[in-house]
Amino acid sequence: MDTLELLKSRRSIRKYKSKPVEEEKLNKCLEAARWAPSASNKQPWEFLIVKDEVMRKKFAEIHPYAKFVAESPVVFIPLTNPEIHSKYHMSDTGLTILHFMIQAHAEGLGTCWAGVIGTSFESELKKLLNVPDNLNIMALVALGYPDQERESSRKELDELVHWDMY
Ligand SMILES: Cc1cc2nc3c(=O)[nH]c(=O)nc-3n(C[C@H](O)[C@H](O)[C@H](O)COP(=O)(O)O)c2cc1C
User: Fold this and answer.
1) Which domains, from first to last, does the chain contain?
2) Vertex 109: Cα angle to 20 and 81 (nearest 5)
3) Considering 12, 34, 105, 148, which has the largest number of Cβ atoms within 10 A of its Cβ?
4) Hey, which of 112, 119, 143, 148 would you mutate to test ligand 1's pocket, going by the most ligand atoms within 8 Å of its Cβ?
Protein backbone atom coordinates (compact mmCIF):
# COMPACT_ATOMS: atom_id res chain seq x y z
CA MET A 1 0.00 0.00 0.00
CA ASP A 2 1.40 3.43 -0.78
CA THR A 3 1.86 5.94 2.04
CA LEU A 4 -1.11 8.14 1.22
CA GLU A 5 -3.42 5.12 0.95
CA LEU A 6 -2.12 3.84 4.30
CA LEU A 7 -2.79 7.20 5.96
CA LYS A 8 -6.24 7.56 4.43
CA SER A 9 -7.40 4.03 5.23
CA ARG A 10 -6.56 4.11 8.97
CA ARG A 11 -9.73 4.34 11.08
CA SER A 12 -10.37 4.63 14.79
CA ILE A 13 -11.43 1.15 15.87
CA ARG A 14 -13.78 0.72 18.82
CA LYS A 15 -14.49 -3.02 18.57
CA TYR A 16 -11.73 -5.62 18.87
CA LYS A 17 -11.28 -9.37 18.50
CA SER A 18 -9.89 -11.20 21.52
CA LYS A 19 -6.96 -12.50 19.40
CA PRO A 20 -3.72 -11.41 21.11
CA VAL A 21 -1.30 -9.04 19.42
CA GLU A 22 1.98 -10.70 18.47
CA GLU A 23 4.98 -9.36 20.44
CA GLU A 24 6.85 -8.72 17.19
CA LYS A 25 4.04 -6.47 15.90
CA LEU A 26 3.75 -4.64 19.23
CA ASN A 27 7.50 -4.05 19.24
CA LYS A 28 7.34 -2.62 15.72
CA CYS A 29 4.63 -0.18 16.84
CA LEU A 30 6.75 0.87 19.82
CA GLU A 31 9.78 1.23 17.58
CA ALA A 32 7.76 3.48 15.24
CA ALA A 33 6.65 5.57 18.24
CA ARG A 34 10.24 5.95 19.41
CA TRP A 35 11.21 7.43 16.02
CA ALA A 36 8.66 10.26 16.10
CA PRO A 37 10.08 13.71 15.42
CA SER A 38 10.77 15.79 18.52
CA ALA A 39 11.52 19.47 19.18
CA SER A 40 15.29 19.79 19.78
CA ASN A 41 15.20 15.97 19.79
CA LYS A 42 14.45 16.05 23.53
CA GLN A 43 11.98 13.13 23.32
CA PRO A 44 9.88 14.20 26.33
CA TRP A 45 8.03 10.91 26.52
CA GLU A 46 7.90 7.49 28.15
CA PHE A 47 5.64 4.58 27.26
CA LEU A 48 3.52 2.22 29.33
CA ILE A 49 1.96 -0.94 27.90
CA VAL A 50 -0.94 -2.59 29.71
CA LYS A 51 -2.34 -5.98 28.75
CA ASP A 52 -3.83 -6.96 32.11
CA GLU A 53 -7.60 -7.38 31.71
CA VAL A 54 -8.47 -6.21 35.23
CA MET A 55 -6.57 -2.97 34.64
CA ARG A 56 -8.12 -2.47 31.21
CA LYS A 57 -11.59 -2.86 32.67
CA LYS A 58 -10.76 -0.26 35.31
CA PHE A 59 -9.62 2.15 32.58
CA ALA A 60 -12.94 1.65 30.82
CA GLU A 61 -14.78 2.52 34.05
CA ILE A 62 -12.72 5.66 34.63
CA HIS A 63 -12.55 7.05 31.06
CA PRO A 64 -16.04 8.02 29.86
CA TYR A 65 -15.16 7.71 26.15
CA ALA A 66 -12.87 4.68 26.10
CA LYS A 67 -15.09 1.68 26.84
CA PHE A 68 -13.27 -0.20 24.05
CA VAL A 69 -10.03 -0.53 26.09
CA ALA A 70 -11.76 -3.26 28.10
CA GLU A 71 -11.82 -5.30 24.85
CA SER A 72 -8.59 -4.39 23.09
CA PRO A 73 -5.87 -6.83 24.20
CA VAL A 74 -3.28 -4.05 24.49
CA VAL A 75 -3.39 -0.45 25.70
CA PHE A 76 -0.53 1.85 24.75
CA ILE A 77 -0.16 4.69 27.27
CA PRO A 78 2.26 7.44 26.27
CA LEU A 79 3.42 9.70 29.11
CA THR A 80 4.68 13.25 28.63
CA ASN A 81 7.43 14.86 30.66
CA PRO A 82 7.00 18.68 30.76
CA GLU A 83 10.29 18.98 32.68
CA ILE A 84 12.11 17.79 29.57
CA HIS A 85 10.30 20.18 27.22
CA SER A 86 7.72 22.51 28.76
CA LYS A 87 6.49 23.85 25.43
CA TYR A 88 6.41 20.80 23.16
CA HIS A 89 5.91 17.82 25.46
CA MET A 90 2.34 17.36 24.26
CA SER A 91 2.86 17.80 20.53
CA ASP A 92 5.94 15.55 20.54
CA THR A 93 4.18 12.82 22.48
CA GLY A 94 1.14 13.16 20.20
CA LEU A 95 3.43 12.38 17.28
CA THR A 96 4.57 9.15 18.96
CA ILE A 97 0.92 8.15 19.07
CA LEU A 98 0.44 8.86 15.40
CA HIS A 99 3.56 6.84 14.50
CA PHE A 100 2.31 3.98 16.69
CA MET A 101 -1.13 4.06 15.07
CA ILE A 102 0.16 4.14 11.51
CA GLN A 103 2.58 1.26 12.10
CA ALA A 104 -0.26 -0.69 13.75
CA HIS A 105 -2.43 -0.11 10.69
CA ALA A 106 0.38 -1.30 8.42
CA GLU A 107 0.51 -4.50 10.52
CA GLY A 108 -3.25 -5.10 10.07
CA LEU A 109 -4.03 -3.91 13.60
CA GLY A 110 -6.57 -1.33 14.76
CA THR A 111 -6.13 1.51 17.23
CA CYS A 112 -8.13 4.25 18.87
CA TRP A 113 -6.71 7.29 20.66
CA ALA A 114 -8.64 8.32 23.77
CA GLY A 115 -7.40 11.65 25.13
CA VAL A 116 -6.46 11.88 28.82
CA ILE A 117 -4.10 14.82 29.45
CA GLY A 118 -5.85 17.69 31.23
CA THR A 119 -9.03 15.75 31.95
CA SER A 120 -10.69 15.46 35.36
CA PHE A 121 -9.88 11.72 35.42
CA GLU A 122 -6.18 11.92 34.55
CA SER A 123 -5.16 11.91 38.24
CA GLU A 124 -7.26 8.79 38.94
CA LEU A 125 -5.55 6.97 36.05
CA LYS A 126 -2.13 8.17 37.22
CA LYS A 127 -2.78 6.81 40.70
CA LEU A 128 -4.00 3.46 39.36
CA LEU A 129 -0.89 3.13 37.17
CA ASN A 130 1.57 4.47 39.75
CA VAL A 131 2.68 7.23 37.35
CA PRO A 132 5.00 9.77 39.05
CA ASP A 133 3.66 13.29 39.71
CA ASN A 134 6.00 14.94 37.20
CA LEU A 135 4.63 12.95 34.24
CA ASN A 136 1.29 13.29 32.43
CA ILE A 137 -0.82 10.63 30.76
CA MET A 138 -1.26 11.80 27.20
CA ALA A 139 -3.81 9.17 26.14
CA LEU A 140 -5.05 5.62 26.31
CA VAL A 141 -4.48 4.06 22.90
CA ALA A 142 -6.30 0.80 22.24
CA LEU A 143 -4.48 -1.78 20.09
CA GLY A 144 -5.80 -5.05 18.72
CA TYR A 145 -7.28 -6.87 15.74
CA PRO A 146 -10.26 -4.88 14.41
CA ASP A 147 -13.74 -6.36 14.70
CA GLN A 148 -15.47 -3.64 12.70
CA GLU A 149 -15.13 -1.66 9.49
CA ARG A 150 -15.54 2.08 9.75
CA GLU A 151 -15.78 5.09 7.51
CA SER A 152 -14.69 8.64 8.16
CA SER A 153 -14.49 11.95 6.40
CA ARG A 154 -12.35 15.06 6.36
CA LYS A 155 -12.83 18.69 5.41
CA GLU A 156 -12.00 19.35 1.76
CA LEU A 157 -8.62 20.85 0.93
CA ASP A 158 -10.22 23.97 -0.58
CA GLU A 159 -11.71 24.76 2.86
CA LEU A 160 -8.30 24.47 4.49
CA VAL A 161 -5.55 25.61 2.21
CA HIS A 162 -4.53 29.21 1.58
CA TRP A 163 -2.01 29.82 -1.15
CA ASP A 164 0.64 32.54 -0.79
CA MET A 165 -1.41 34.64 1.69
CA TYR A 166 -4.46 34.12 3.94
C1 LIG B 1 -6.62 14.07 20.76
C2 LIG B 1 -7.64 13.01 20.39
C3 LIG B 1 -8.51 12.56 21.37
C4 LIG B 1 -9.44 11.57 21.05
N5 LIG B 1 -10.23 11.07 22.07
C6 LIG B 1 -11.12 10.09 21.77
C7 LIG B 1 -11.89 9.50 22.83
O8 LIG B 1 -11.79 9.87 24.01
N9 LIG B 1 -12.73 8.49 22.51
C10 LIG B 1 -12.88 8.04 21.22
O11 LIG B 1 -13.67 7.13 21.00
N12 LIG B 1 -12.14 8.57 20.19
C13 LIG B 1 -11.27 9.57 20.44
N14 LIG B 1 -10.48 10.08 19.44
C15 LIG B 1 -10.60 9.55 18.05
C16 LIG B 1 -11.38 10.53 17.14
O17 LIG B 1 -12.74 10.54 17.51
C18 LIG B 1 -11.21 10.10 15.66
O19 LIG B 1 -9.85 10.20 15.30
C20 LIG B 1 -12.05 10.97 14.71
O21 LIG B 1 -13.42 10.79 14.96
C22 LIG B 1 -11.78 10.66 13.23
O23 LIG B 1 -12.02 9.28 12.98
P24 LIG B 1 -10.90 8.38 12.29
O25 LIG B 1 -9.72 8.36 13.23
O26 LIG B 1 -11.51 7.00 12.14
O27 LIG B 1 -10.57 8.99 10.96
C28 LIG B 1 -9.54 11.07 19.72
C29 LIG B 1 -8.64 11.53 18.75
C30 LIG B 1 -7.69 12.48 19.07
C31 LIG B 1 -6.71 12.93 18.01
Assistant:
1) 21-147 (3.40.109.10)
2) 90
3) 105
4) 112
